[in-house]
Structures are given as structure tokens and as C-alpha cells.
Amino acid sequence: MREFLSLVNLDTAGTNKSVYFLKAIIIPMLKRTPLHDAHVSIGARMVEFAGWEMPVQYTSHVQEHMAVRQAAGLFDVSHMGEIEITGDDALALVQRVTTNDASKLQDNQVQYSTLTNETGGVLDDLLVYRINAEYFLLIVNAGPADSDFDWIKRHASALNCEAHNTSSGYALLALQGPRAERILQQISDHMLDRIPYYWSQRVQVDGIDSRVSRTGYTGEDGFEILCKAADARHVWNRLLVTGQDRGLAPCGLAARNTLRLEAAYRLYGNDMDETTTPLEAGLGWVVKLGKGNFIGRDALARQREQGSKRKLVGFEVLDRAPARDSYPIVIEGQQAGVVTSGSPAPFLKKNIGLAYLPIEHTPVGTEFSVVIRGRNVPARVVETPFYKRERTFD
Amino acid sequence: MANTPEDLSYTKDHEWIRAKGNEATVGITDHAQNQLGDVVYVELPKVSDKFESSEPFGSVESVKAVSEIYMPVSGTVIEVNEALNDSPELVNEDPYGEGWMIRIKVDKPPELDALLTAIEYEDYIKEEAAE
To answer: Would you tell me which residues 331-350 of chain A have a C-beta closer than 8 angstroms to some C-beta of chain B?
Structure first.
């Protein structure tokens, strides 16, 4: 048995006594990434996240957030799952279980997509890598990784392909920020400026065989580096040393969460789950009804035709008090939803959040209330993403 | 290592109290602000609000978490630190000084004797960390 501080510590109804942040919770038998000892050795504060023991912060949440916006940050995201699909029907299986059109992918291209059930509910969101025509790699969230794999395997049975859950064999690092390319280039054998956004390449990173993609979850330029679990510590240490002079900071889950929220990236489990569809979550651009049949297609086609009754919006709190996950939303005296993600935004210096609202209240500029400790606090629907990086060519 | 001034009393909820006669100043400890991280918002009660010992009188929020602050002893609020509205970071920078939260009239002075001394509080933090 080990003891951890709770990462998420929220007063769900806005009225109950919140779980005090120093009160430890006991969590047995957490999974550890290959970088666990490296995190502990540099003083990371470890917490439980989706069954994993993960670094929540190393120095300061805000400093780590700002490092990614202004220099670079390195994240261990090895808790994410890897599912590999191989065989003649690999594409057919990917097409059957995901909503985006994977037939459009070329070798080494990457695609954001969702995995939906028959009613169009989101089972997970994921990245689909086409390695070649008979080999696709899916990167899925840590929490649903095992159930995703069972689901995919079940739908593979009639097809001529195999699905393997290879999560434990890999480590995944995210190097994010305006200086990410310059740092990674110093120890890579491939010209990284030839990897466009949402493409990947097999790269030797300091001699370690890796798959490097220009992807991320922070709203900045950057890369995700997939390597064998056994090589993770070498790559992690080399990157930290190489980036030292350029302001590279190791970053924890706390910074990852506020960075993704500023970029309005949805968090699976918070901003979408089986009870919401990708259309409601504002991810209609990854639902390709014209690609042929897939699981959930009929339900999603119906919803697209009839229109959603609710939609995920971004909002700004018009008050100093931050809105937090699960705080109730009130419109005209009636509870109309809850905050699905809410936090102070360290770079924007505003209190922002995401929430599902009835469709008639979703236009930008619409005002509503968030209940914060029993008080109705005004908030306004705004354009997303909250943060959009300026493209620079330095 | 957290700073724990010897002339203050402490609670297991990580508040400190500095009593002078029947009046006292209350804030959160250096250890608490350190665990909480960058404070971005402090919600405080109104002058003349009355609270029992251990009752929450406000909340302090960092970017990642919100925590309630509890009364070390029963009392009536006589002043709140208005500077925290514009500069909540004072809680991080100077938790025992500029980062104070409220001044109270102590309603039941004997309750002060039940609080932790600096040494007892430091032992408590160590126990908490070792658990």
C-alpha cells in the first residue's frame, strides 16, 4: 500500500466540504511507467491517475505550464495505451471501429479519431498511425485502454487481421513547446522540419529506434516520441540534458491538463464519454458518415440530420472565482448542466472551462451562471480554442 | 523544509493562529501553501461573520485545486485581508505575514490551549508524509 496526494480535489456540488488537499488517499497496486524512478529521483510529486502512479508536478505547476508556452516541456505519457493492428484487413478493422476516414491516410500519416459504440457514444478518443497498408498503430487513453482493446478484438474476429495490446512494451514521451524541434533535432538523425503536423517518421533519437510524430496535447508545436520501454530512460535523460540550455522543463499531469484546456482539447472521461457523441462534443470533423459503415454510424447520421440537443462549449467565468470540474450550471433558475473541465488558465490568466449546454444557449456571447460554493457566478460562452499559438518562424 | 515559526499555534488542517489577548490573526502554513502551489484566488468571509471552531470560513485555490480553510478556534471576524483580492500570491510569498487571511475576536479563549505548538505541528507533518 502506498500513499498519494489526490490530483483532482473538487468540491463537486459547490457546497459540500471539499476533500482537503493534504488528506492522503490510499491506492493499492498502481501501475508504473518505465520512467517512474527517474521522476522520483528529480523530486516529482507522484499521484494516482487512471490506475497509474504519475508525476503531477516537478517544481511548480504554473512554471511548467509557462515553460511549454515559452520554451519547451517534456512529459512522460507512457500510461497511454498502444494497440497494434496488422494484416490484410487492418484498414478494414480501423474503419469499422473508428469514426474518421482512415482510408485517407498515407504511410506515416497520423489521424485524430474517436471510437464509438452502436449508439454513437464515445468509448475513447485516439490517434491512428498508419505505418503501412497492413499495419496500423492506435494510441489510446490510459483509463479505457483495456476495454478499447477488448472492443477492437471482438470486432476483429470476422476479419483477416490481428489486434495486439502492446502497451507495456512501449514508452511515450511528449516534447512540446516552441523550442521542441531545435532540442530534438540535436539528437536526431532525421530532418524534423520534414515531418509535417500529424505525420510521423521512424527516427534514431540519440541512437534509439523511435517513432516520432508531430502531435501533442498542449496547443504548441512539438513531438511525441514512441520508443521501447527499455530505452525510455536513456531518451528521457538525454532530452533533459540536451534541452537544459533552452529552458526545457520536465512537466507533470497538472500542467498537461491546463495546457490542453487552454487549447480546448477534450479530456476523455471529463468532456466526453459513452453518454455523449462526438457530434455533441464538437468533434463532427472526425465523423465521416460518407466513408462506409462503421459502429455507431446510424445513430450519428440520425443525430446529424436532426441536430444535437446540446453541445460542448468553451466559457469564461466573469469573476475571480475559478469554475471547477462538476460545478453546476444554471440557466434561468434551472440546472442546465455541469462544468466538465474548469480551471484557472495560467497563460491566459482567466478562469475558463468546458461544459455541455442546451443547444439554444450555445452561441458565443450567451451568458449563464456557474454555481460556485452556493453562489451564482456569471459566465459567458466564448470562441474555442481559448489559446491559439502564434506561428513563428524563428 | 517548511518554515514553522515558534510563536504561533497550529491546526491539523494546516492553519496557523497568532493570538494577542482576545484577538487573533489566522492564515495557512508555509507547508500548506507549498503543497497547494501557486495561489490564484482566496475567498474570505465578511466582517462580523461568526464561526465555530473547525468550521470552514473560506477557501483558497491554486491552479490545480480548491481547499477550504477552517477556524482554529471559535470566533467573530473583525478584519479580512483585502490585499489578497488583488494579490493572492501573497499567501505563497509570505504565509505568516502579508499572506494572513482574517483577524478574529476569540469567543472561547480556552480553545487556544488545545492547538498544536510549532514542534507538535512539525511532527504532525512528518507523520503525515510518512504514512
So the answer is: 343-344, 346
